[in-house]
Each structure stands twice: as structure tokens, then as C-alpha cells.
Amino acid sequence: MTEEWLDFIVACRTGKAHDYDIVEGPMADDTIYNYVQGFIDGKFSRAAFWELAKFKYPTHQISFHTARALTTLRFLKGVQVHEE
User: Fold this and answer.
1) What is the pLDDT of residues 3-43, one digit of tens each?
2) Do the domain assignments include residue 62?
3) pTM, entire model
4) Domains in the chain: how many in total?
5) Containing domain of residue 15, as a range?
């Protein structure tokens, strides 16, 4: 997570559109999202956000935002999964 990441997440969460076809990077889980929302709401500063988020390790995501982005995918194989 970086300053650029936080700014992008805040922009997305407040409804600002972007022109990216694909976005890749850390995914904010519920805890991180609560910290982001607290930052957006002015409940704490940017520095306080980073202190809270310091020991949280978000998962990684790739998000496809346009039909054009989907053309980058290629099907390799399928696997049948059986539930027990």
C-alpha cells in the first residue's frame, strides 16, 4: 500500500471515475476499508491511517473495468471440482 494507492482508493470510494482498463494492486479488506472510510470521513489523519494499516496485509487483486480489458484474458483450461 502506498500514498498513490490510498489516493486512488479514496477517489474510487467517493465516486470519482477513472479511465483505467485494468487496475492491479492491494485489495482493501473490511478492516482496511474501515480505516479508509475513517480517513474519508475526517475521523483521523493520513498519518493515523498509515499507523492503523501498518500491520495489515491486504490481498492482491486484478480488477477488469472495461470490455477491452477482458480481451487480454485467454482461457487455458478448466477443472471440474467435486464437493464432498
Assistant:
1) 888 899 889 888 999 999 999 988 777 788 888 899 999 99
2) yes
3) 0.67
4) 1
5) 3-70
